[in-house]
Design brief:
Low-confidence stretches: none
Number of helices: 11
Order of helices and strands: EHEHEEEHHHHHHEEEEEEEEEHHH
CATH class of the largest domain: Alpha Beta
Radius of gyration: 19 Å
Strand content: 15-25%
Bound molecules: flavin-adenine dinucleotide
Strand order of the largest sheet: 4-5-10-6-7
Helix content: 25-40%
Oligomer: single chain
Mean pLDDT: 96
Structural class: alpha+beta
CATH architecture of the largest domain: 2-Layer Sandwich
């Protein structure tokens, strides 16, 4: 195995201290679980002299419901998400995505902030957070801003944050009683696998009519994407298996996949149809429950 290049680790205990280090040190990078970053450093794909370890900053590690929002701190691990009753009951799409990721060891280390900031087009938390219309809180020493979750992704493995910024929190409106959401993924095997395609849906139904429909797919473009045209076809309609079948067929035309070593663009289009259908049906059935 290739040795890691030399670097220094800094272990701030407060957000302020971490932001100060990022603003002053050259070639500094935040590290949370390190499950994405350390392999990249080993392959010498990133040039880092200082690692700012976020794992001791208690104010970044929380899951709570407050003021009509579910708020999740950036260093919340995937295991924390899976163990959260709140996430399981209110945002099953996010719960299913976290539960599908890596192995127990990866879920114990990997964080929500790291998954988003790594900005992989296949990041499993991308589609559920897009379907939940989540926002990300971004902080630097002098500024705090809030952006839609999709805007964290700037391109394959490139996030939109400046070098002195940290993602501190992800939040979304608490889904109302009766809303349904679901996540599905297809990989090359059942566990410890990156998605060839992943998908999430969120649905609210009132008097049999679909009031809100959101659908997002991953690994089918340079970043996770919402499928607005498909959502439009569902809104204001009485849901049926036939309508969902029709909408799913459209999804395979809306995506922009590429051929790569893991799957062909053709296969990803086909699976976009299959997964869209599965998540829409599952989210709809959960609405009725
Ligand atoms: C064996 C294995 C299996 C995996 N399986 C999956 C899977 O099934 N699905 C999936 O989506 N991913 C998978 N991954 C990828 C990875 O585990 C996840 O993306 C994980 O959530 C990354 O979190 P982390 O805390 O380890 O990120 P890190 O490696 O610590 O960081 C990743 C990137 O984000 C930056 N960063 C981290 N936190 C912040 C922050 N708060 N603000 C700003 N920048 C930040 C870092 O500088 C780095 O660039 C797998 C990885 C491995 C090694």
């Amino acid at each position: 195995m290739r040795p890691l290049p030399r670097f220094r680790v800094h272990r701030p205990e407060s957000l302020e201290e971490a932001l100060e280090l990022l603003a002053t040190l050259e070639k500094a990078k935040p590290i949370a679980g390190g499950t994405d970053l350390i392999p990249l450093m080993r392959e010498v794909k990133v040039d880092v002299k200082h690692l700012i370890d976020l794992s001791r900053i208690e104010e970044l590690n929380f899951i709570r419901e407050e003021g009509g929002y579910i708020r999740i701190g950036a260093t919340t691990t995937l295991s924390d998400l899976v163990e959260s009753e709140l996430i399981a009951s209110k945002a099953p799409a996010l719960w299913e995505a976290a539960a599908s990721m890596g192995s127990p060891q990866i879920r114990n280390r990997g964080t929500i902030g790291g998954n988003l900031c790594n900005a992989s087009p296949a990041a499993d938390l991308g589609p559920p957070l897009l379907a939940l219309e989540a926002e990300a809180e971004i902080r630097s020493l002098d500024e705090s801003r809030c952006i839609p979750i999709g805007e964290v992704f700037a391109g394959p493995k490139v996030n939109s944050l400046a070098e002195d910024e940290l993602l501190t929190e992800v939040r979304f409106k608490t889904p109302p009683q009766g809303a349904g959401s679901a996540f599905e993924k297809i990989g090359r095997r059942k566990a410890v696998t990156l998605a060839l395609v992943n998908a999430a849906a969120y649905i609210e139904v009132e008097d049999k009519t679909c009031r809100v429909a959101r659908l997002a797919l991953g690994a089918v473009a340079d970043r996770p994407m919402r499928l607005g045209e498909a959502e439009e076809m569902l809104r204001g309609k009485e849901l049926s298996e036939e309508l969902i079948e029709e909408v799913s067929a459209l999804c395979s035309k809306l995506v922009r996949p590429i051929d790569d070593i893991r799957a062909s663009a053709w296969y990803r289009r086909e699976m976009s149809r299959v997964l869209s259908r599965r998540v829409l049906l599952k989210a709809w059935r959960r609405c009725k429950a």
